[in-house]
Write a structure and sequence with these properties.
The chain is of the alpha+beta class. The protein has one domain: 3-Layer(aba) Sandwich (oxygen-dependent coproporphyrinogen oxidase). It has eight helices and nine strands. The strands form two sheets. Strands 1-2-3-4-5-6-9 form a seven-stranded antiparallel beta sheet. It has a two-stranded antiparallel ribbon with strand order 7-8. The longest helix has 26 residues. The chain is globular and about 60 Å long. The N and C termini lie far apart (39 Å).
């Protein structure tokens, strides 16, 4: 499938765009570039970073092949489970140092496989979401307006409410009865309009993520904070860990497909804390966060 190679080139460009943008934003950033190869087929480039703005970040590219597509990748296509596959994508997680700057995540990906037919079966997936600790309405509105614009720029504004709802549903911690953050976009099994159009929209999602997050991060990364805000940030990071280890299908796919563990778990924050029975003062800024951890309309 020659068009998959075009997507691969664009993914590598997206990866470099984000890394270069972060370096321009934070000249203290230490970037570690780690190419790797997978014994069962394929490989990737993991890029880890740390600096004054980003306490821990990862911008990972992978392109892997295998003989048995894992069940985590075939929820909507169970008949393909166990088929030979190729999966490629870019995955990004940013854990800022400043508690007033939100954590963010983005992923765009392509799966191809064979189902006893001459042509490969393919589908795209991805999305992005925002996890603030001290939320600002203007940042969240910018985030969701950017999500809408990404869909609209490809002639599909109707996809925004669908993908937003899917994001709210997916990034949900049932054992906590709360969303992971304030949402964004989430889509999977997408192949509408043909390969080129579906690819273009998927890439637009990836580039839109970076433009929106760069705007928010640059605004909040220098905000003054105290040990109180830092402590709350570390406590709330615990919920991020809980979701990624208990519910995230991307983490599960990486493990099931015998992916590179160091890259799969790069999404976890460097420091985190759990506190038994923690309840913020009802009138405090920390308590305000709970009002944002349920789906709402932002536009």
């Amino acid at each position: 499938m020659h068009t998959a190679e075009s997507f691969k080139t664009q993914l590598l460009n997206l990866q470099q765009t984000i890394v270069s943008g972060l370096q321009a934003l934070d000249d203290s950033l230490i970037v570690t570039r780690d190419p790797w190869h997978r014994e069962d087929g394929g490989g990737g480039i993991s890029i880890a970073m740390t600096g004054q703005a980003i306490e821990k970040g990862g911008v990972n590219f992978s392109d892997i092949e295998g003989n048995h597509l894992p069940p985590s990748a075939t929820l909507k296509r169970p008949q393909l489970q166990g088929r030979p596959f190729r999966a490629m994508g870019v995955s990004v997680v940013m854990h800022p140092a400043n508690p007033y700057a939100p954590t963010s995540h983005m992923n765009v990906r392509l799966f191809t496989t064979i189902d006893n037919c001459a042509e490969p079966i393919w589908w795209f997936g991805g999305g992005f979401d925002l996890t603030p600790f001290y939320p600002f309405d203007e940042d969240i509105v910018l985030w969701h307006q950017s999500a809408f614009d990404a869909c609209a720029s490809s002639g599909r504004p109707d996809l925004y409410p669908i993908w937003k709802q899917q994001c709210d549903t997916y990034f949900y911690l049932p054992h906590r009865s709360e969303t992971r953050g304030v949402g964004g976009l989430f889509f999977d099994d997408f192949c509408e309009g043909g390969f080129e159009r579906a690819m273009a929209l998927t890439l637009e999602v990836g580039h839109t993520y970076w433009k929106a997050y760069r705007s928010i991060l640059s605004k909040r990364m220098h905000s003054p904070f105290t040990e109180r805000e830092r402590s709350f940030q570390l406590y709330r990071r615990g919920r991020y860990v809980e979701f990624n280890l208990l519910h995230d299908r991307g983490t599960l796919f990486g493990i099931q497909s015998k992916g590179r563990t160091e890259s799969i778990l790069m999404s976890l924050p460097p420091l985190v804390r759990w506190e038994y029975g923690f309840n913020p003062d009802p009138q405090s800024p920390e308590a305000k966060l709970t009002e944002y951890l349920k789906p709402r309309t932002w536009l």
